[in-house]
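User: two proteins, same treatment. go.

Assistant:
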Amino acid sequence: MKEDLINKQSGMEIGIYTLADLGPNPHTGKTISAQQRIAEIIEAGKMADEAGLDVFGVGEHHRLDYAVSAPPIVLSALSQVTKQIKLTSATTVLNTVDPVRLFEDFATLDLLSNGRAEIIAGRGAFIESFPLFGYDLNQYDELFEENIELFLKLNADEKVTWNGQFRSSLKNADIAPRPAQKNIPLWVGVGSTQKSAERAGRLGTGLALPILGGDPNSFRPLVDVYLQAASQAGHAPEDLKVGVTGHSFISETTQQAKDEFYPYYSNYWGYLNRQHGKSMQMSRADFEQFSAPETALFVGSSQQVIEKILYQYELFGHHRFIAQMDIGGLPFKKVAENIERLATEVAPVVRRETSK
């Protein structure tokens, strides 16, 4: 069944995403403003579109050390300066957003972009949105289950009657506007829990796997559970999609990539751990282990990154790979160089090999 996930004509979709973190440059100690960060994200999206990449994602956080709390607004700006690239959230914190408002926002984005809007839904790495919008973190799973089922109903029907636990009822409500596409593609981001993978399969959404390090084999059971649940629920194999997301940095040689990226990668995990109340640091020895050929960290030469993507394709048969490059205070010049390498050196080979 995994082989059916790929469009045999075009091969795997390749793209990039950003979480818009506002980290200091480890070499200068300077942190750019949220305004500059968003401007650079818009420029990165334009570059990715012009270079022929397939997908551009923008994450959601509700903290001062991240620049984007409203992905549909940033994606709408991107829709006006791009032509072909798909525009997705990465991720939408579905537990703490009204599904009706979410649908309206992304249906509007879909109209503005001529049918290029998508959503990756998940819990996210932080919990600030729960108290911010008045939700109980202890009801995380119940909120997610109710909101995703309601969103799928909104996605399918122009008029909806619905009753639930956490929001007001709907009675023959107009759900407008309708998107340019038949419906808005919805993926569920699943980090490690088989229950979440099973739910994605049961509901027939896409499955997005954030594989940030370690042995990619450990994620294979999630794909198996997803496909099995989808089959049991009667979803057609051609309607199922698996995506992989991961940190990436590409340079002329693997050694050069590791030398250039380590200060930013170590810096990223340093401030991310502090944001979560931890004081863990990443040594160069740890980084060497993280970036070894058999691991999931996409750092190296173009050939090294190609090999890692194709190895994971053998495991998952996935439809999409999107890379996160702009972390740890990485200067935009380096981000731009990576977009170019991914689009011109990595994507053509991966598409060719996965379309066979």
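Protein 2:
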Amino acid sequence: MFSRLALRPALQCRVLQPSSVRSTTTASAGKESDERDLVNFPRPERLENPGKVRLGFLPDEWFQFFYKKTGVTGPYVFGTGLITYLCSKEIYVMEHEFYSGISLLIMIVYGVKKFGPTIAAYLDKEIDAVEADYNSTRENAKKSLADAIEDEKKEQWRAEGQAMLFEAKKENVGLQLEAAYRERIMTVFSQVKRRLDYQVERENIMRRLSQKNMVSWVVDGVMKSITPQQEKESLQKCILDLKSLAAKA
């Protein structure tokens, strides 16, 4: 009965005691993946402080194990009875090495109390440095991967720009082909027109030459058919006509 009453404050103190562990992962920093099995494979946690002990070296878990069976006084009675049994039956003989061990234990306790905090602070700094190194390596890897993703997005954007550039080049080539086609059509048109103009000019020249030759032939024929007497009479008649016109004027 008394052991249960003594156990209740101890359990309350244990419940109110803050946890002395810290996680070495960044699970709380972001959303956990749905594919990760945290039940069977939980994330490892590193103890920041050592576990709770009693009498300086006995783990508290041993006492908690006895509490369920014997109550609060059980571990102490068991330890005292065990030591008394070992010493009374001379199973553990207290020879000169035992007292040397006590002296050595006192020195160790003094060294731990004297130099323990300094060494612990130094080791904590070393652990923090190693952890910071690991975290920096991870952050650098994340940063390099993020940069690689950004570079890939830029390359995709450039590829899309290249597709637009190819379309523009295709349109330019199409315009150049259209211009070359129209230029060749214009060349064909000018060449055909030049040849047709040549044929028209040739026909005109042939017609003029024919007319000229025909007129010359008719004039020559007429001139050959007119006698000198007829020419003289015609000339005189023309002179008379001119004189009559001049008299009327």
